[in-house]
Design brief:
With 185 residues, the protein is an all-alpha fold. 75% of the residues lie in helices and 0% in strands.
């Protein structure tokens, strides 16, 4: 497999990855106005899957370090591969629901509710599985996240009530996305 040996180059690749990961949604603005955000995300995921397979069979199979991609897959436990696939499906289902919620409720509502809920569920599930760390700091921080989610949801409801009709579809999609994302691992 291709392994980066130079620390500076590794940091550069990390920064490029971070920029791409954090700004993929902005590329939708470069496309047609008729392309729904959820459909764009679906196409984005398929593109990432294809690119990952291309990289796996090229960069993942050249070089002197480690095993080739196919050797790695063959030595992996089938249950582990199945868990990874199921986790990927659940994670992407959560993301599709989250981008649908962003389309309906906006980024300032859907993202904090969905990701905040996923963070809270993830903390609880991980702590129950492996209770490590300071409980006071961990659950105190989680309580602040829950408070922020509730305040954000309340502000959204008040904003919508001033416009005549209260739409909860965006919040419901955000909550479902957060629950799925909290359990995807």
């Amino acid at each position: 497999m291709f392994i980066i040996q130079d620390y500076t180059l590794a940091v550069i690749f990390t920064l490029v990855t971070m920029l791409c990961w954090g700004s993929w949604a902005n590329t939708q603005k470069l496309t047609s106005k008729d392309w729904r955000f959820e459909a764009f995300y679906w196409d984005y995921v398929l593109g990432i899957l294809i690119a990952s397979l291309i990289f796996a069979f090229t960069f993942g199979s050249i070089g002197d370090g480690g095993r080739s991609f196919l050797d790695d897959i063959q030595q992996a436990d089938s249950q582990s591969i199945q868990s990874a696939i199921i986790g990927g499906v659940v994670f992407n289902a959560a993301n599709i629901l989250l981008v649908a919620a962003i389309t309906i409720a906006g980024m300032s509502v859907a993202f904090p509710v969905g990701i905040g809920l996923a963070l809270v569920i993830g903390v609880i599930v991980n702590y129950l599985d492996n209770p490590v760390g300071d409980k006071t700091l961990l659950f105190g921080g989680m309580a602040l996240i829950v408070l922020a989610i509730l305040l954000n949801a309340n502000a959204y409801r008040k904003m919508q009530s001033g416009q005549g009709s209260v739409s909860t579809k965006g919040l419901v999609l955000s909550v479902v996305a957060g629950i799925l994302m909290g359990y995807f691992f």
